[in-house]
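It is worth pausing here to work through a concrete case rather than discussing structure prediction in the abstract. The textbook approach is simple: state the sequence, then state the predicted structure, then interpret. We follow exactly that order.
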Amino acid sequence: MSIHEHFVGPMGGVLMSLIAFSIVFLVILGLMLVMFATKMLAHSLDAAAKAKSAATPDASAPGAKAVAVAPQAPVAVTGPAEDGELVAVIAAAIAAACGRAVAVTGIRPVLPAGGALASSWKMAGRMEQLEG
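Step two, the predicted structure:
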């Protein structure tokens, strides 16, 4: 009995399907293991970087290097941006990102390069073009 005789008829088709699906699932399992190993490697590299940054002295420690920060002119806060809670939230986000205490002196909206906000029709046209 040769090998090709095992794959003849309906049972041969079922056997061939089982073999093919098994190969596909083994490849998927292998890819999953590669992704898991990459995740574990990334976590270990992050932990090593955090340990290294924790070992370096911060600005409050005696003998630490002073970091020069260029002062910026304060910006006048006008309109609804005077909300104290909003300023506190933004200051907390900046402090968390910088890793040190910061002082927010003002908040102002950022306008597009043209200086004026785009019209609703222009924005709708752009969104329609992005949808493809």
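Step three, interpretation. Helices lie at 9-55, 84-98, 120-131. The longest helix spans residues 9-55.
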